[in-house]
Design goal:
Elements lengths: L1 H23 L2 H28 L9 H29 L5 H10 L8 H10 L6 H29 L3 H19 L10 H25 L10 H10 L4 E4 L7 E4 L4 H21 L10 H16 L27 H17 L14 H10 L5 H12 L4 H16 L1 H20 L1
Antiparallel strand pairs: 1-2
Helix pairs in contact: 1-10, 1-15, 2-8, 2-9, 2-10, 2-14, 3-4, 3-6, 3-12, 4-6, 6-13, 7-9, 10-14, 12-15, 13-16, 14-15
């Protein structure tokens, strides 16, 4: 629980600092500073995704058993995504347009992936590693992370339309997926933190070089290969490695190398740095589009101006351009409404994760299935990575602000979710004993 509170706290700290940076840094240097922040964020995300891929494993000789698991995981990732996207469009957008849907579908994808790393460590710490729920959730959580990574490709196509550059992007994506499958945990390269950091830096540099080189050919639609899939695929290919830890009480213990105390500390430190950087990458609150009531105020001003035939050059400050929200910088931020939006989005995103409750009826008691669903609630680094990608496509406004705060709230509630899971499973054990 302590680690979850820390991650949430650093996420909020980064978000708070992001509101003061524009006034603390000279405009000439602010753009360069934010570019450095986002580059470091990408490197940290790559580090995390390599570790996520490293933990991914399937039995190739028993693929049929994974078919239904993937359907369940994909559905449990899709429902939160669609619920939140609809809320963004119909409640937080000033008008339902194709542009609003495009932005909402990408920004709301943050609600889809379960935080596998946070979840697994919390469940193990809670003594639940031997339960049916833990064995099943390990598969589902990894699968919905994978589903999120794969869906980013068609989402990008939907956002910018079909371009020849996207065709070029798809080719290496298919190669990466094939390589991850063909060489699953067969690549013998180091997996300790200095090496993982190096891999992430190299992949980020390659992505940036391709991006800026392609801008010379077409500045409007450059080739941008996100680090999510390349780093995940690399992690999948790295062979499992163990280390012997000396223990006076239990004797020598052989554990996976990333489970060693030093590696776990570094991994958690990277998660903290990533959360701070994600917060710093958020747009200033002054850019959010405000609540529905504020939007109505602006719309009424425009209508009144037309009626009075008094539209001067200042109308451009009120009328939103295509794909943009109204200019509301002069209006106060209604934090009461923001809090309500955050609560509703968090509720919708977690309700969408309840799909596994209606599955596996022959395998487990309904309380175990409910525990499985609640165990899928925690969100974390992958969802934050989706928000970073959304911002890189110019998506801002209240959608990103609410999504960011919802992610932080969900992180803070992770400990509560685990307590609920433990109580549900304990009640099942008591019934069986009786």
């Amino acid at each position: 629980m302590k680690n979850i509170v820390l991650l949430s706290g650093f996420l909020l700290m980064g978000l708070i600092f992001s509101q003061f940076l524009p006034s603390l840094i000279l405009p000439d240097y602010y753009t360069d500073f934010m570019h450095v922040v986002r580059s470091l964020t990408t490197i940290a995300l790559g580090f995390i995704m390599i570790r996520v891929g490293y933990e991914f494993d399937i039995d190739k000789n028993n693929l049929k058993s994974y078919g239904w698991d993937y359907v369940v995981a994909a559905t449990a990732a899709t429902f939160p995504w669609i619920f939140v996207a609809m809320y963004f469009v119909f409640v937080l957008s000033d008008i339902s347009t194709i542009t609003a849907w495009k932005e909402a579908l990408l920004a709301s994808r943050f609600a889809a992936p379960t935080s596998a790393g946070i979840l697994f460590s919390m469940l193990v710490a809670g003594g639940l590693a031997g339960t049916w729920m833990y064995k099943k959730i390990k598969i589902l959580a990894i699968f919905d992370d994978l589903d999120t990574v794969l869906l980013m490709i068609p989402l990008k196509m939907f956002l910018v339309g079909w371009k020849w550059q996207l065709g070029i992007i798809m080719m290496p994506m298919f190669i990466l997926l094939w390589s991850a499958w063909r060489y699953l945990h067969q690549l013998r390269i180091p997996i300790t933190w200095p090496w993982v950091t190096t891999y992430s830096v190299i992949i980020t540099l390659i992505s940036e070089i391709i991006y800026y080189s392609s801008k010379l050919m077409d500045e409007v639609v450059p080739i941008h290969i996100e680090v999510l899939l390349p780093t995940f695929a690399l992690g999948c290919m790295i062979v499992y490695q163990t280390i012997v830890i000396k223990n006076k009480k239990q004797g020598d213990l052989e554990v996976d190398i990333i489970e060693s105390p030093n590696e776990k500390k570094i991994s958690f430190l990277v998660s903290i740095i990533f959360m701070v950087l994600v917060g710093l990458s958020m747009p200033a609150i002054v850019d959010i589009s405000g609540s529905s009531s504020e939007i109505n105020v602006v719309n009424q001003k425009i209508v009144d101006a037309y009626i009075m035939d008094d539209l001067s050059d200042s109308k451009d400050d009120l009328i939103p351009q295509p794909g943009q929200s109204p200019n509301l910088e002069s209006l106060p931020v209604d934090w009461g409404w923001v809090a309500i939006h955050v609560f509703i989005v968090t509720l919708l995103s977690n309700l969408g994760k309840l799909f596994p409750l209606f599955c596996y009826r022959k395998e487990a008691h309904w309380k175990e299935r409910l525990a499985l669903s609640v165990g899928m609630f925690p969100r974390g680094e992958v969802g934050a990575g989706v928000l970073i990608i959304s911002i890189s496509y110019g998506i801002g406004g209240i959608m990103i602000t609410v999504a960011m705060l919802s992610l932080a709230l969900n992180l803070l509630l992770t400990g509560v979710f685990i307590v609920i899971v433990k109580k549900l499973l304990k009640s099942v054990e008591v019934k069986v004993e009786v």
